Amino acid sequence: MIRIAAASAHFGRDLAFDLGRIAKLVADARASGAALLVLPDAALGGYLADLRHPDPAALPPALDPGDPIFARLRALAAEMVVCVGYCEDAGPVRYNAAVCLSGDGVLGRHRKVHLPAGETIAYAAGDRFDAFDTPVGRLGMLIDYDKTFPESARSLALDGAQIIACLSAWPTSITNRAPRMAQDRQSRLFDLYDCARAAENQVVLASSNQTGAMGGMRFLGQAKVVGPGGEVLARTWSKAGLAVAELDVAAEIATARRVLDHLGELRPGSYR
Fold first, then answer.
1. In degrees, to the nearest 5, what angle opens at C-alpha 191 toward C-alphas 185 and 192?
2. Fewer CB atoms < 10 Å away: N or C end of the chain?
3. Distance between CA atoms of residues 3 and 11, nearest Å
4. Mean of the pLDDT values across residues 165-191?
5. CA neighbours within 13 Å on the CB side: how many for 139?
6. What is the CATH number of the domain that holds 236?
7. Using an 8 Å Cβ cutoff, are 110 and 44 in contact?
8. Could you tell me which of 210, 216, 204 has the C-alpha nearest to residue 190?
9. Is residue 143 within 8 Å of residue 167, measured between CB atoms?
10. Number of domains forming the structure of the chain
11. Calpha distance 239→13 (Å, rounded)
């Protein structure tokens, strides 16, 4: 049995503030007994302030993967596995990126593959989905819009991922504002994608998200842990905090696949 925590929290441009908030979330997750903590996209440096017309002069700070800030994160993580999102400095381009680490070092990385229109001004697109081994099981990461595409999570599941960490800075609808969060189209889709990606691949999914506002965007929160049958095991709703669930990942997946094994019953020759 392990405990998995997914965070809802607000992060901005002040890296010192962000590190302090991460330290608090790590401490809270550790106190809850969590072995895995999934932090939001852009937890280091905050997300874009305007998705429709990003200002190139006001982008998140770009961090080299070897930046000392990641050594500080490894020290904070210690025995835990922690996933965190940031803006990656890759010389002539930037990536919306995530890193999974523990006190022993970096376990895996991901560069966001699917970029909504506004992000293409700020970021280059990644080109692959890879699962990797961790102390809590084989894991893969998605960032924001990646989870809209079933092929993203399916690629990770076919690579053996038992747990998919979805790191988001997912806002309410920009083009069709709703008077209440519960009526927001993006709020509904965020939950739908989380449950669908878990159920169709019969894996555990930990979904984090930002809260609060950045520029003209208001973030949803709604962090959750979803079981391999698509059932929500823990959630934060729209508030900041941790969604924590305890489960035997391998046993839950084996139970879900006992009669209907989606990955084993694929018919790739029939798909266009």
1. 85
2. C
3. 24
4. 86
5. 29
6. 3.60.110.10
7. no
8. 210
9. yes
10. 1
11. 21
